[in-house]
Amino acid sequence: MKAKFRLPKEEQDFFFQTIKEIIYTQDFLRLKQFRHHGNISTYTHVIKVAYLSFCHAIKKHKRINKKELIRSALLHDLYFYDWHDKHNGVHLHGLFHPKKAVQNAKRLYSITKREQRHMAHHMFPLTLIPPTTREGWIICIFDKLAARSDYKAIKLKKKALKKASLK
Ligand SMILES: [Fe+2]
Ligand SMILES: [Fe+2]
């Protein structure tokens, strides 16, 4: 693991204490069923975004609400369908899922107004309104970096499998 993604013990503990309140709940566990990028589930994706966002915040921004950042990153894609499935009845997924995630998070995890704001604009610049909070910007950026690293891993895996099948 790269040094920038290694945390001191007390920060690691804080991260796991915070995610523990959400990731073992029944509703959140449902995210394991849905493919997000390739064979990476939404469950894995959002934990990755939460961890990367938190590492960045610890190293670069002292003045953020760490708990809100982790919770909002975990909940930013809280929708219960496979977005690849053309028959899921959802149109323009990219544009509308942040709103759906906020609604679900309000209903299932009673999130704060600020947490709603952190989540609401994570698809910028696809959606026109940019994030309105520092935490929101961090989630928006690390969501994209996490997606890029997921696709890179998928590509590498495919390449390795192809190579292995040629031997
Ligand atoms: Fe998203
Ligand atoms: Fe995401």
What does the model show?
The protein is mainly alpha-helical. It has one domain: Hypothetical protein af1432, CATH 1.10.3210. Helix content is 63%, strand content 3%. It is built from seven helices and two strands; from the N terminus they run H-H-E-E-H-H-H-H-H. It has helices at 9-23, 26-29, 42-60, 66-75, 93-109, 113-120, 134-166; strands at residues 35-37, 40-41. It has a two-stranded antiparallel ribbon with strand order 1-2. Helix 3 (42-60) crosses helix 7, helix 4 (66-75) packs across helix 6 (113-120) and helix 4 crosses helix 7. The longest helix has 33 residues, at 134-166. The chain is globular. The protein starts with 8 loop residues before the first helix and ends with a helix. The model has no long low-confidence stretch (mean pLDDT 92). The chain binds fe (ii) ion (2 copies). One fe (ii) ion binds next to helix 3. One fe (ii) ion (FE2) is lined by residues 45, 49, 76-77, 143.
Structural class: mainly alpha
Sketch the major β-sheet.
2 strands, antiparallel
The total beta strand count reads 2
Strand order of the largest sheet: 1-2
Q: What sort of overall outline do the alpha carbons produce when their principal axes are compared?
A: globular
CATH class: Mainly Alpha
Strand content: under 5%
Separation, N- and C-terminal Cα atoms:
30 Å
Per the CATH scheme, the topology name is Hypothetical protein af1432
Low-confidence segments, given as residue ranges, are: none
Number of helices: 7
N-to-C series of helices and strands: HHEEHHHHH
List the bound ligands: fe (ii) ion
Rg over alpha carbons:
16 Å
CATH architecture grouping: Orthogonal Bundle
Mean pLDDT: 92
Number of individual domains: 1
Proportion of residues in helical segments: 55-70%
